[in-house]
Amino acid sequence: MPSRLNLPPRPPSWSSPLAETHSDAMDSTRTFVKDVKRLVVKVGTAVVTRSDGRLALGRLGSLCEQIKELNSQGYEVILVSSGAVSLGRQRLRYRKLVNSSFADLQKPQVELDGKVCAAVGQNSLMALYDTLFSQLDVTSAQLLVTDNDFRDKDFRKQLNETVKSLLSLKVIPIFNENDAVSTRKAPYEDSYGIFWDNDSLAALLALELKADLLVLLSDVDGLYSGPPSDPQSKLIHTYIKEKHQGGITFGDKSRVGRGGMTAKVNAAVNAANAGIPVIITSGYAAENILKVLQGQRIGTLFHKEAHLWLPLKEVGARDMAVAARESARRLQALSSGERRKILLDIADALEANEKLIKNENDADVAEAEEAGYERPLIARLALKPGKISSLACSIRLLANMEDPIGKVLKRTEIADGLILEKTSSPLGVLLIIFESRPDALVQIASLAIRSGNGLLLKGGKEANRSNAILHKVITDAISDNVGGKLIGLVTSRDDIPDLLKLDDVIDLVIPRGSNKLVSQIKESTKIPVLGHSDGICHVYADKSANMEMARQLVLDAKVDYPAACNAMETLLVHEDLVQTGGLDQFIADLQTKGVTIYTGPRAGRLLNIPRATSLHHEYNSMACTVEIVNDVYEAIDHIHKYGSAHTDCIIAEDKEVVEVFQHQVDSAAVFHNASTRFCDGARFGLGAEVGISTSRIHARGPVGVEGLLTTRWILKGSGQVVDGDKGVVYTHKDLPLQS
Question: What is the catalytic activity of this protein (predicted)?
Fold first, then answer.
């Protein structure tokens, strides 16, 4: 029996180690925050004040509203606030200006004493917090500390008791360093941490008060690989000391405070090493603290076990492709039975890990719903009950099919004793870019293994968790003599341009998506592209159609699975069916099932139904276009003009009309009296499919194992030479496939 995955321990917070194993760009899971009870929030001077030194009332108001919301939900929130010095400096400058003569203003201006500024500003800052929290029916308390305080064990004990009492009364403790009287000349440091500024104070308090989480609010979204203003800089979602330390270029320090990002990173590293998860995120964005506690991927995470989640060495695009090619060659060297066993092991592993897969998929679906994605996308994203079992069955069917590698397709006697064989051969390395359907990953991976190809996969970001767990389950089931690098999971869109340049390593690109995506890929690469684009499928109901059959076929083609690319998007109706009531029956049937109808120009003139915005439109939902045509020839012209050469169907009993339709419609699949939903690799008996190709070169229609193979010529001789074509007598005789 297959064993369930032995995953690294899931951290008590923030993100899934499984997802993070593949990329720090993976979205976080909701498991991070479920155990958070007490958190410390530090707000920096750049967030508290505006560029002119005045208070940023809007940001402070949003901060207080978030804390109020957390307080009402039972969280214990401790606030560490900077801004007193900056606010005091602004007020003293204004007072000095008011009291100065013109002559005084001409003299060199002496910089104000920072400790005086702190004394004046702290009073104003706390008055504002008290006013804002009072409006929200929340009580706050001020606690000023210095480094010397922490040297006293009795102070630490009393600090804990006071804060515990305040929190039990739902009072918000607001901490700040008492800069007005502080005598510190150098960083205070002990086994608990470093106290040098309010960032390090927040870290120290998080440890001292046993917080579950520390949130450092900044004026940028998090830690970047370089200055945030540099367009080449990228947001780092998970900080890995071994990976990022020394590789980050810090910009200028804070425009107003003592710290800046360097101070925040130092504080975050110290706190994380001591076991307190830390998130640096923007205090400018609304509700960021709430989003963190909802499990959303916000800012940069620091965690003691982060190094376990990400590989220390980042795998580049070329390295990934080369590794897939090398693994593919090892796969091809196996016996047919050994390759078959790999597929059977994968099928077993999928079923053994069904619960884990479902949990990750549920998280993807929930976040997609929260993000407001359209229903068709969410429908494609969800792994419905029984789907994993269905996928496992398809893989077993594929495993039990005849081995496609090395199959002799043709044998020819070139000359006496010189035999030429045309055999099937893997293409090499495939790059598949697909949409939100995580089940596509399983189908594509199993087809690649059966056909002996290496594989690179790039799925939609909305399926990050699902793709990550499925990829891990599959690659863990691949035997060590081949290696899991046979299948690489590309997790960042930024890697795609680099991959498309690797025409010496990658042999075929299959983009599954819109025409726009396919066109962009074709324009960006020298690698052959097998296009799988829009599925604008038509059903034409001829006047000779059996109406009882036609009504069933139309309904099935539309409502069986509206989000599929082989679902009917346009119904073409012969004009005679308008008079006989057939058109009305179709519309009534569809509307009864909840399908929204739109019309073409001709149908729109007869029916009180909204017009379609475009006749070339893929709804992927419970909607379709209805149009009236004169005859089969007009139906064919309509399909060629507005279709996508995917799958088109005629419902008719007139054999001549059927023959015209099936011979003249230039689509990958042309059906007669059968639902368009049959256009599927599994239903065609291919085991699975990497997509439905609308290209005209290499493979067309559902692309199964055969579509992922090319040919190889094997010549078997016994010492023959050409010698100017005098060395042999050519016979060129066809031979039986079996020698």
Answer: L-glutamate 5-semialdehyde + phosphate + NADP(+) = L-glutamyl 5-phosphate + NADPH + H(+); L-glutamate + ATP = L-glutamyl 5-phosphate + ADP
Neighbours of 539 (CB within 10 A): 27
pTM above 0.70, yes or no: no
What is the CB neighbour count within 10 angstroms for residue 126?
18
CA atoms within 13 A on the CB side of 359: 11
Question: Does an H or E element contain 625, and which?
Answer: strand 623-629
**Per-residue pLDDT reduced to its tens digit, 98-117:** 666 655 555 565 577 778 88
Q: What is the largest CA-CA distance in the chain?
A: 115
What is the spatial distance between Cα 225 and Cα 234, in angstroms, rounded to a whole number? 5
Yes or no: say if 143 and 174 are a contact pair by the CB < 8 Å rule: yes
**Token pair listed for 448:** 């690649």
Please check whether residue 433 is in contact with residue 513, taking contact to mean a CB–CB distance below 8 angstroms. Answer: yes
User: Residue 600 — very low, low, confident or very high, per pLDDT cuts 50/70/90?
Assistant: very high
* CA atoms within 13 A of residue 668's CA, in its CB half-sphere: 33
Sign of the alpha-carbon torsion through 625, 626, 629, 631:
positive
205-208-211-216 Cα dihedral, nearest 10 degrees:
20
Which segments of 99-139 does DSSP mark as H helices, in order? 102-106, 114-135
Amino acid letter, 165: S
The total number of residues written for the chain in this structure: 739
Single-letter amino acid code for the residue at 193: G
HEC readout, 402-462 = CCCCCCEEEEEEEECCEEEEEEEEECCEEEEECCCCHHHHHHHHHHHHHHCCEEEEECCHH
Q: Which tokens is 301 given?
A: 């995470």
699: phi > 0 → left, psi -120 to 50 → alpha, else beta; which? beta
| CA separation, residue 458 to residues 22, 222, 499, 705 (Å) | 12, 26, 11, 20
* Terminal Cα-to-Cα distance of the chain (whole angstroms): 40
Strand 418-426 and strand 408-415: pairing? antiparallel
What value does the mean pLDDT take over residues 215-230?
85
714: left (phi over 0), alpha (psi -120 to 50) or beta: beta
Minimal CA–CA distance to 634: which of 669, 664, 670?
Answer: 664
Between CA 204 and CA 600 the distance in angstroms is 68
Question: pLDDT digit string (tens) for 494-552?
Answer: 788 889 999 999 999 988 876 677 778 888 899 998 876 688 999 999 999 999 999 99
Which phi and psi angles does 188 have, rounded to 5°?
-85, 130
- How many CA within 13 A on the CB side of residue 621? 11
Q: DSSP class of residue 279?
A: E
pLDDT attached to residue 256: 39
User: What residues contact 645, with CB distance under 8 A and at least 6 apart?
Assistant: 666, 667, 668, 694
Give the residues across from 91 on adjacent strands: none
Tokens describing residue 73: 């939900």
> What pairs with residue 193 in β-bridges?
190
The C-alpha R_g of the chain, in whole angstroms, comes to 34
CB of 272 closer than 8 Å to CB of 240: no
**Average pLDDT rounded to a whole number, residues 615-621:** 92
Tell me the average pLDDT across 121-132. Answer: 88
DSSP annotation of 611 reads B
Provide the sign of the torsion angle of the four alpha carbons 474, 8, 216, 62, taken in this order: positive
**19 confidence band (pLDDT: 50, 70, 90):** very low
| Angstrom distances, CA of residue 219 to CA of 59, 81, 253, 487, 604 | 11, 14, 11, 40, 55
